[in-house]
Amino acid sequence: NPTIYDPSIFETDPQTGVEAALSDFDAQFTTQAFWQKTDRPQNINTAAFPFVPVELTQDLGQVDLQVQKKTATGTVFTARSQTIYDDNNRGFGRNLPSDWFQALEAEARVPLLRGRGVAINRLPIILARMRTDVSLAEFEQSVRTLMRDLEFTYWDLN
């Protein structure tokens, strides 16, 4: 039997509901972090290269951050940040033992054919909304049927 809660259950279904369809347009934040520590002996002729250390010691770190947003027309906007830290003992000719590298990127991808247009990108939302509307119509039909059966039962008592 349909209940008053069915339309809201269909609306918020995490797989096929309207909220699930709208989540395609939510901004997405992703991050990755990597760390590497190296202590490795090197095959170096110290007589020919006296300033190069025999053992390589290195700390290498990288952090990647990204925010991505899809629009109703299908365009995907992305902003990225990449930070790399490198600290090693290969300091020949370097002022400092560590390096920092920062890269910022902005990107806009506009689909030319597949996935382009408001009608195509909003179609999953329309289909999910139709499922909610069907659920609401079924509930209204069950209320009308209940009222009709109640009226027939009342008149059958007399």
Number of strands: 4
Number of helical stretches of at least 4 residues: 3
Low-confidence stretches: none
How would you spell out the order of helices and strands?
HHEEEEH
Principal-axes shape call? elongated
- DSSP strand content: 25-35%
- Alpha-carbon Rg, integer: 31 Å
Major sheet details: 4 strands, antiparallel
Helical percentage: 25-40%
- pLDDT averaged over residues: 90
Q: Which secondary-structure class do the elements indicate?
A: alpha+beta
Distance separating the two termini? 29 Å
Largest sheet strand order: 1-2-3-4
Looking at this protein, list some descriptive labels:
alpha+beta, 158 residues, 32% helix
Explain how this protein is built.
This protein is of the alpha+beta class and 158 residues long. It is built from 3 helices and 4 strands; from the N terminus they run ααββββα. The radius of gyration is 31 Å and the shape is elongated.
Strand and helix layout:
Blueprint: H1 6-11, H2 18-22, E1 28-41, E2 55-70, E3 76-88, E4 98-109, H3 118-157
Antiparallel strand pairs: 1-2, 2-3, 3-4
